[in-house]
Structure formats: C-alpha cells, structure tokens
Amino acid sequence: MAPPRRDDPGRRDRIIDACLDVIAEVGVAGTSHRRVAAAAGVPLGSMTYHFTGMAELLHEALSRFARTVSDGFEERMAAARDRDEAVDAVVAIIADDLFDSRRSLVLTHEIYTLAARDEAFRTLTEAWMARSRAALERHFDPATTRVLDALIEGVTIHRALDRGPTFDRAAVRDAVLRVVGR
C-alpha cells in the first residue's frame, strides 16, 4: 500500500518565494533546484513536479517580484490626489518603497541582467515599465513620465552600486521637482 499523499497546497508558492530568497542570496547564476528545494523545505522532486525547468521557475519567481513592486507603485500613485501629492508619492517610491532593501535591489538587477539576454525576461521588464508609466501618467504627461521612470531606475542602480553617500530624501525630491518642473 502506498503511503498517503501529503496535502501541501501552498508548496508551489513556497517554492517561488524560496527561489526569490535564493536569487537574492546567490544570484541567478547560483540558483539551482537543489538550493531552492532546501530553502523551501520541500523534496527535490517537487521542483520538477511544479515547474518544467529552472527557466520556468525563475520566470515565475521574478514575475511575482515585479508584480509586487508594481502593485506598491500603483497604490502609491493612485493615492495621490493632485500634482503635489504625486510628487510626494514619487519621492516616497524612490526613497522608501521600491528598493528599501538590499534584497529588492539585487532582485531588480537580476531581472535587468536576464532581460538583456533573454526575450522572455525582456517582456517581463517591459510589462513592469508599462505598469509604472501608466501609474505615473495619472499625474504627469508621457514625456515627463518616461524621464521620471528613468530617474527611478537610475537611482536604483546608484543605490545598488555606489559606495558613496546614497541619495537622501531631499536630493530625491529636488531631482523629481527638476524633472516635473517646479
């Protein structure tokens, strides 16, 4: 008689979340089925049961991360009732929300690196940028939106790589005001 099957309906989600943790720790290059399974606390066989391969798992995990970031971005921009509050929202997105941890910075840059090489991840980043721009366009014209989006992305690169002082809130606010026009 076969042993009873364990009911674990959250296993797939746990694997995806663990994959993000592993990517944040060792990068995409160091991420393996074995590492993710260990981090998720699941048998190695669960990996191939739930995902056709590493490419699918990476795409699922990084898509989840991008959606989470986009959801927060959209919430922040939707709460702004006027242009001044929209400026405050952009400052908060840059200074507080999107890239508030080393983990978020690493995951973001891992997506960028994959997108530079792989069309599937390029599509993911294009969708992410489209959501960001749509949220910004609630308050700013399309040309300003593109520059704001680039500013947000550029600051994240500097936050991830610059060993010097990071952008403080006042510097971020000044930059946003320069882009949108005082």
Automatic annotation (TrEMBL):
UniProt entry tagged with the keyword Transcription: yes
Pfam families for the chain: TetR_C_31 (PF17940), TetR_N (PF00440)
Annotated ranges, domain HTH tetR-type: 9-69
DNA-binding region, residue range(s): 32-51
InterPro entries per UniProt: Homeodomain-like_sf, HTH_TetR, Tet_transcr_reg_TetR-rel_C_sf, TetR_C_31
PROSITE patterns in UniProt: HTH_TETR_2
Keyword Heme: no
Keyword annotations: DNA-binding, Transcription, Transcription regulation
Alphabetical list of PANTHER family matching this protein: HTH-TYPE TRANSCRIPTIONAL REPRESSOR NEMR, TRANSCRIPTIONAL REGULATORY PROTEIN
Protein name: TetR family transcriptional regulator
